[in-house]
Every structure is written in structure tokens, then in C-alpha cells.
Design brief:
It comes from Streptomyces hebeiensis. This protein is of the alpha+beta class. It contains 15 helices and 21 strands. The chain has a 6-stranded mixed beta sheet. Strands 8-9-10-1-11 form a 5-stranded mixed beta sheet, covered by helices on one side.
Amino acid sequence: MQVLQSTDFSYLDPTRGFDGGVNAFYRLIYRQLITKAPNDAKDPNAMVPDLAQSLGKVSADGLTWTYKLKAGIKFDTGATITSKDVKFGISRGWDPEIGIGSPYLKKLIDAPKGYQGPYRSGDLPTIETPDDRTIVFHLKAPFPEFDAALSQSSGTPFPVGTGGGDSFIKDVISSGPYDLEQLVPGSVIQLKRNPHWDPKSDTVRKAYPDAWRFTVGVEGATIDERLIAGQGADVNAISGSVQTATVARLRTPQLKARTATAPSTCLTYMGLNTTKKPLDDVKVRQAVNYAVDKGSVLNATGGRQFATISHSILPKTVSGHIDHDPYPSAGNAGDVAKAKRLLTEAGYPDGFTMTLDVRAKEVDQSRGEAIQQALKRAGIEVKLNVIDAATYYETIGTPSQQHDAAITGWCPDWASSASTFLPPLFDGRHITAKGNQNVAQLDDDAVNAEIDRIGAMTDLAAANKAWGELDKKIMALAPFVPLNVENRIYLPGTNVAGVIVPSGDVDYGIIGLKDPAKG
């Protein structure tokens, strides 16, 4: 199986990596207690047992969750995976240098104050392992979606004592169907079968191909041309979503027949750093929201065929979404007069200068230029700071390296749930020196308290409604500018089967080749 991509993965280490592309890759080499159902399941958003025998058994007070591991599951070394290995892998998430990926488990598990992971602080007493196949988690507060939190890549087990420092930067210890055979950073990742993976223990991954080859550093336009041409090994290839310029070419019957479109749940937005002057003033942030021409940003993204304009934090596909437009303008072109009025009230009648971080990708730079031109109308001069795509999220997730604003995105981490949208983006108590998800660095007491209140609700329907109301309150604070929600359009090679995308990412675990002899 061939995968063509322009950008390298952030990290092989699942405690460090967290972006969508690498999460899809992790499914080939790592397993967790619980995982998302395969894309071809009746309910592809459901949480299902993976290393565990069943979903968690929760105590009456909602604070204790217990799991039993399946028998005979092994690492690629041949060693049996025990509850202690699961505990060790999860506890790595508290390390300030390593635990920069998914934040949920370290937010939910009741770790001692000041705990910094197994390498610095030793044992984590709030995860118990009474025997080799039983593991018990003690939470800070009830969280009815804890099964889903365990499905995150930070829930990956590792043998006790491994993975210190940078040892997982260039190597892995696999618990999934494949193992690392070759790594040339920025160029090639080759996977081979893990002989100790037992398909009988894994109801999620089919693992059809004998090997995977990820070719990195190929220009997006070149990838599209290769997939359209479909020559040689490219008949067995797949990539991420096609480039915006390619979409119109997919209307021919031959190409349309193998196109897969996923309505995305992911929001693209411009985060505004609330700790930087003058963006620490809510009126200035509101002025920026009014000044942005979302129509021109949509065109830069690829137009209506490719994306839909957003006015709120939660996309329509996410539970809890409420239709509201707190900063309206005619034709979504921006209200420059209101922006100027707010800037004058804030003491900036002549505007100000700000630096906007963008990825070194054509579409992101085009969006940045559209914002640059729109804000100039209100007297705001925008300087673009272009950052390498492979290190972009780590850079903007390091507050000491962050500028005034950044174009980025966010996807729900499970089941299109608002609980995975608002807390990681706006809980000010979890702003970290590295791996920070709260790019706006918003730390508002009322928002933090509401996140706690809603997070503890056991009635998920009522909770979703409350998340929608919180969306409106946060947007009044204007910590960022919602831009759009993009569809994802895939063009797999002619010999590729199993590309089913109910939403979001391709599920590598169910992909195979129609004819293994081809290519």
C-alpha cells in the first residue's frame, strides 16, 4: 500500500503527536484499551473495545473506571502487554517534554499535584493495576465519555521503563498490526507486518496489505497529478484531501467514480493571542472579527465546492451547534465601519500592526493573504510569518514562540462531540509551555467554571445544549475568528479498496488492494 503526502508526520511517539494525519497513521502501529469503530461499521463513531475485553465499568459516583485486558496480546518484541504497560504508557503524558499530544487523560485522571510522568516522578498512584490484566482509573470528576478519552493516542501502552528522552523519535514499540521497518525523516516511512499481532484479538483492523510505504515531501499538485494518471505503483496509492485546484477536474465520470467525499467536522479558524497587546482588549478582538472578509477566505480555500463559511466555534456537524452569527456583515465581506468604530473606542483609531503565523502550504498562505488584505481596510497591518508545515503545530503550541495570531484548525476527537471542542481550546487552566491547544491563551474564570459544570453532566443531550450556549458566550469574548469548515475529497488509486469516509480521516485499518498483483 502506497501513501503519498507532502508533509511529514509530527511524531512517531503517540504521546507527542496529535494532529489528524498522524492519528490516522498511529492506527496501523498502536492499540489502546478502547478505540473508535472502523469506518465501515454500522456506527463508525461508536467506541469499541480494543486491548480491553469490554467498555469500562464505572462506579456509581462516576469517579472510578475499571478495565480488563484481553489475554495473549503482545508488543512487537513478543512480550505480553500487561496492565502495568498500559499504565506506564498513559503516565508518560504528564512529562512536560514528552506529553505534548492529546490532553484529555491528564486533564481527567486525578494525578497528584506536580506529577511529571514516570521518568521524573515515578509511579502514578491514581492508576491502579491489581493484577496483570486489570487496570483501574481514578478521575478528578465524573466524565461519562471516559471510554472515548482512552481511545486517544496518549492511551497507547509501552513496556515499563521505555521511551525516555527522545528514544521514540526514530523508533517505535508496536502494539498494532505493523512495525517500523525503515524511517528516513522527511522522505520515507516503511512499515512491515508485526508477527506478534494476533488478528483474533483485533476486531477493528483488517490489516490487509503486507506492507505500507509512506512517501513524504511530494508537492500536493504533484500528488494529484500522479493519482489522476494512475501509472505504475500509483494505482496502489492514496493521499490526503486533493488540492483545491484539482476539484474541478474530478467531474469526469472515470474520476468521479473513485472519488470519496467526507463532510468535515473540522473548523479552520484564526486564533487571536489574548496575551498580546492590543489583542488583550476584547474590543480589538471584536474589531478583527468584524474586519475579516470570510468570503475572500472561502475563495482562497477553494470556494463553496470545497468549504462552508463558519460564524461559530462548533461546526454544524458537531453536537451542540447553535446557529448564530455574532459579527455579521453583508455577503460575509466584513463590516469595516464597525471594525473601525471598535478600534477607535479601544484607543487605536489608526489601527495597529500584528503578525499572523501560517503554515508553509499554498492554501494557508492564500488564506493569510486574504486576511491581510481584509484587515488592511480597517487600518490593521498584518505581517505573515510562514512556518514549516511539519513543525507548525508544535510551534504555535509553544506560547513562547507564538505571535499575535495563527491560522489553524480543530476537529472533534470522538463522535463529533462538543466536549472535545471547547474544553481543549478554551480552558485557561491547561495552558502549557509546550503542546498548548489553547492558542488564544484565553483564561476566563467564568468560561473555566462553565467547562467544569457541563463536563460533569451525565445527561449528554442537556450537556450538548449547554456547550452550544457556551459557544455563544466565548464568541462574545472574540478569542478567535471562525473561518470555514472544509470538506475532504479523496482520490484513491484505481486498485485501492476500502476508502470509506463517513467523516474526516481515511481509516487505514480497513484499506486494501483490489488485486495484490498490480503495481
